[in-house]
Amino acid sequence: MNIILLGPPGAGKGTQARHLVETRNMIQLSTGDMLREARTSGTDMGRIVADVMDRGELVTDEIVIGLIRERLEGDKAGGFIFDGFPRTLPQADALADLLSSMGEALDAVIEMQVDDAALVARITGRFTCGDCGEVYHDVTHRPAVDGVCDKCGGTNMKRRADDNEDSLRQRLMEYYKKTSPLIGYYYAKGQLRTVDGLAEIGDVQKAIAAVLD
Ligand code: AP5
Ligand code: ZN
């Protein structure tokens, strides 16, 4: 099964993708994570990517489609979760072509609906385990012991450079201008399903499971 998690920054895409990886043996393909890896590479491409991301703008279609293409060639396990990709209509067309060339299809596009007011609180409170990638929040999802990851015991908690109000405003603008047209695109294809992303994490997990089963 191959699915897209679609929603604005802070909608909970990464949180839900990790749960699907753990419970359904699916593979999370997060272009955000891939780009954060690229920016630490010390290459010219990495420096350009870092600058664009910190401003909250979108990286070029060419770069992200290339990253996805490479990953699709590997293990397929229980299917792919596209997290933060596609984000533009050309990316959506490229994904359709890539999947069909592999004899694969897209099974569902899950739109996570949230309102903008909730996003600021989610983004500014977020931190992540630098060792295993588990996503936490200062208020809604703290580890049992402060500073220690529930999943791996690591103590290397990180905050993202683009998790501030200015950058979030720009990321939201990019979302509404370039990514939200994908909602109509997938609706017209009969693939769109919607879940309430404002519900508690466990209830969002149940809503997504209901779509998939
Ligand atoms: P990316 O890394 O994809 O970031 P994003 O889309 O802005 O999404 P986030 O990771 O911020 O949010 P999320 O929906 O995953 O929420 P999370 O689960 O963490 O992209 C970063 C940048 O990379 C882009 O700005 C762009 O520059 C570039 N980029 C990436 N992909 C690209 C592409 N395809 N094309 C071009 N450029 C691209 O949750 C957020 C917080 O809320 C957490 O603290 C979590 O604990 C909490 N939370 C989650 N769910 C709930 C809930 N139900 N209730 C309460 N709290 C919750
Ligand atoms: Zn961890």
From TrEMBL:
GO terms for molecular function: AMP kinase activity. ATP binds at G10, A11, G12, K13, G14, T15, R126, V135, Y136, A199. This is Adenylate kinase. The keyword DNA repair does not apply. Pathway: Purine metabolism; AMP biosynthesis via salvage pathway; AMP from ADP: step 1/1. The gene is adk. It catalyses: AMP + ATP = 2 ADP. Monomer. HAMAP family: Adenylate_kinase_Adk (MF_00235).
